[in-house]
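Check the record.
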Amino acid sequence: VFQVQREALFNKSERQVAEAQVATAQQQLADLQAQSSHIMELSKEVFRLKEALGRVPPVNPGSWFKECWSILSVLYILLQDWERKHRQVVAVYRSHLLAAVQGRMDEEVQELLLQILRMSHKDQAQK
């Protein structure tokens, strides 16, 4: 009787181990199928990208460089022009400020400053 009980327990234990192994194998199979699906999607995306890349006309590095250099040259000229204009504006403001400190100011400049002052007072009153 003990022998039969022991065999039954042993068989039950083996069955549980086998069921656990089957469950693990099923989970691994599901994971592999998910990975396979993901790999297939990535493969399709790579294929689409290769096709799209094939439709892009080839770029001549020399012409690309020349175009970039041309744009850079234009931007540099614009920067120089902006810096020149900025220096001129600063010079005018400095001369007006110096004249104001020395007690002499153009009537036109004085009127503009008063207009700016009135506008700033209106803005502060509206807030």
